[in-house]
UniProtKB/TrEMBL annotation:
<keyword id="KW-0472">Membrane</keyword>
<feature type="transmembrane region" description="Helical">
    <location>
        <begin position="9"/>
        <end position="26"/>
    </location>
</feature>
<keyword id="KW-1133">Transmembrane helix</keyword>
<protein>
    <submittedName>
        <fullName>DUF58 domain-containing protein</fullName>
    </submittedName>
</protein>
<feature type="transmembrane region" description="Helical">
    <location>
        <begin position="32"/>
        <end position="53"/>
    </location>
</feature>
<keyword id="KW-0812">Transmembrane</keyword>
Amino acid sequence: MRLKKMTRLILFVIGFVGLFIYTMAFPGTLSWFVLLFYSLVAGVVWLSTAVIWRQITVTPRRVRLLSLWPLLIPTLTVHVENKVTAMSAFLRWRFDLETQLPRGHYDTVRIETVGADFFGFFHQQSKRKIAVDIDIYPEIVPLYKLSHHPEIRRYLKVNAPEIRQIRDYMFQDPMKNVDWKASFRRDKLMVKEYEKESEPRLHLIFIGYQSPMFEQLLSVAYSALIEWQSQLEVRMDLIGGDSFLTIEPNPDKAALFAEWQQMDLKHGKAIVFAQEALVEELRTSRQEPFLIVTEAGEAQ
């Protein structure tokens, strides 16, 4: 591909030099017209790839590019981190593309744009590092199988915190506690105030062992935390990492199990999120009762 681009450019330059020499050797109306027309086309083609980005905006799910002028190239290819998107670009100055950054914290995002003129003589390439402050957490996935597991369903229902009172909404109250029926009846926001628990009722533990399904299992654990912490007190421990943003697959099973052996399972009902391949070893490693949730989102 690179050789083809260079060949086109060399042929373009040879053609221009040949026309220039011919015009100088045999000046005339026709030769000058052809040379000027060739030069004009070359200038327009080159300018069509001289893209200057006026603004680049990056959000967790979208990138917006604004050019100083409408582009004259047929297509534009945009690289955002490891994702590549090609789109029509002719006479456009704004480009919106959907993107999903991998999980993690981002201080900068690498963006590269590539385009070529209609004839393939000149190419545009722009590389930028955009300063951002973005946190990408694991994807939220549905927990149909897990939430309907008889033991978990019974446990969540029996141990749900009791409502102490319904009172007027205050600025610091989370919206999840709003009682919409009471709010509708009284024509103002009302919230449910729950009895405070002294310690967690549910203990979630994620074991970060390396596997092809690591991200899927992490999404299941994160989704369970988000859903269940709205119903009762939850403690979350990540074995092999410090947070959902930074934890990475760990191939050292011995180190993970050593940390698992030191884990205190007295902080409520223990639910362990682990790969299917670790189920038997986990069962025989501890005497305390606990549930195991695999990457399929099923409890055992």
